Amino acid sequence: MMGKQNVTYMLRCSDDTLYTGWTNNIEKRLKAHNAGRGGKYTRVRTPVELVYLEVHETKQEAMSREVQIKQLTRRQKERLIADMEIHC
To answer: How far apart are alpha carbons 54 and 60 in whole angstroms?
Structure first.
């Protein structure tokens, strides 16, 4: 497991929508989302699956990247996810 790191992440929700967020503890955050405590958006869309992750040096970088990703189109987000799967 990863432990405490500043990460920007995307989740695929049960209704196939994508949710983007940031955290400094991805395991804890993922458990919270799937327990219905992660956020208003994901609360009614569980279970969620982690499909994208970027590690950043600082909280500010992770938060900034979250905003950038949220501005992307669905197609651009899917491309990020596909590119990550290729490189893993």
So the answer is: 13
Q: How confident is residue 1, by pLDDT bands cut at 50, 70 and 90? A: very low
* Measured distance CA(47)–CA(60) in Å, rounded: 28
Distance CA 46, CA 77 (A): 20
Percent of the chain past pLDDT 70, that is, above it, reads 94
Give the integer Cα–Cα distance in Å for 5 and 15. 28
**Which residue is associated with the tokens 């955050």?**
29
The span from the CA of 12 to the CA of 21, in Å, is 12
Tens of pLDDT, residue by residue over 6-35, are 999 999 999 999 999 999 999 999 999 999
CA pseudo-torsion sign 55, 57, 62, 68: negative
Quote the CA–CA distance of 69 and 7 in Å, as a whole number: 13
User: Helix, strand or coil for residue 18?
Assistant: strand
